[in-house]
Structures are given as C-alpha cells and as structure tokens.
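Section 5.1 Outputs to date
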Amino acid sequence: MAELQEKISKRFPGATFEEGETLLINIADSSLHDLVKALRDEHGFDYLVTIVGFDRTTALGCVYYLASTKTQRLVSVSAQTTDRDNPMLHSIADLYRVAGLYEREVYDFYGIVFIGNPDMRRLFLNIDWVGYPLRKDYDSNPELNPVSIENERQSDTTTEWVEMPDGKVEKREHTIFEEDELLSISARSIRPPMACCVSARRSMAKPSRKSMSTWGISTGVWRSSVKTSDICRPSISWIVWIISQLITTTTAFAYA
C-alpha cells in the first residue's frame, strides 16, 4: 500500500492517511468524488463493499470501503462535515450503482444528504419518521414515533439535491410513480389469469417501469410485461395457468 499512498499523496495533497489492517484515506468532501473515481479507474478498486456512517459529535460523515476483485486489496476512504444542522456529502452513486442504496441507508439513520443522488428517500423507516436513530442527539421518546398498525407510509416522489455551477445546492423533486403507472396482477391457485385481482403496488415495485406486473401462479412466480389495456385479455398466461394446474393435479394423484 506504500506505492498507492504515494500516488494518492501526489494527486490529492490534502489527503491524510491512517495505517491499520486497512489503509484509511481521509479526504475533504470537495475531493471525495475525484478520489474514489481515481481509486476505481486507476488503481483497480472496482467493488464498493459498503458505506458506513458515523457521528463523532463534532462531525457527521462516512467511511467508504473499496475492494479490488483482481488483487483482493482493500482500502477505505473517510469524508465528513461539521454542519450538523444541514449535513451534506457528495454522492458516488454514479461511480458504483449500489452506492445509491448505501447512501439512502446512511441518510435514513444519520440524516446526511448526498448531493447528486437521484433518489434521496428514506430506505427503511417511514417517510414521516422524526429524527435519525443513529445520531448521538437522537430523541428516542416513543411518543415521537408511535408504533403504527397501518400500512407503511411511502411516497411516490423523491428528492434530489443538485449542485449548480456557482456551487449552490438546489433541491429538486421528481415523480417516481404516476397514479396509474404500475399494477400488480395476481392470479393464484384456482383463479385463472382472467379472474385476476388488480391492485396498485407502487411502493414495492421498481420505479419508472411502465406496464410491469407480477403474476403469481400455483407453481411459482412468472413475471411478464402487461399493459393496462391488456388486463383480463386472453393471452399466453392462459396456457401457463392450465399447464400449472395439470402439473399440480398430476403430482397430487402421484402422492395420493
């Protein structure tokens, strides 16, 4: 790692290093994206293991664990902000696709907003949850977040913070799901596909996928793209359903 440390020092003079089982590179948020990109493109760290948030009372931040699938080397990068009221770091979701989810997890529990992440919704907690549970100043009063017996409150919109050319950060809202965009079609057990149950399942479906649906049949799950206009129209699903019923019936007689 001495060679890597030397190259990083020349490229990023403000970086500091901590030796240990894994080399830790401390970098300012303004250089975070460039450093991670250099580690990926120039030094072979092509795999993002995870992103871990932290609260050091005076600062909030993250440690990024990067690995090389070729050499099995591991390196970590740390960036932080002292702004506890409005903590922000730059996103690396454009470098590692999975970073989008890791950053949402950190936002959910620490309240750190990632500039450039196109989907800054909470990941685990409800959208109306008060506070960020892993921060040291979190108020754990159960009256603030009572246990609900209703469905989880989710949103069909998301927020993105975009950095403008003048350095200012602008908040933008995007629509993920239209009112009638996605349908979940279930045809289970003895109900044929035409006798289906149609229900909106926007909170559990993947975003921005027109005409996606899920058909559940007795032998498993078969996914097919079905437009709204095709609902309850005879199709290949009839054949799949009939075959599944024949298999189920034959199996039942065989073990009778």
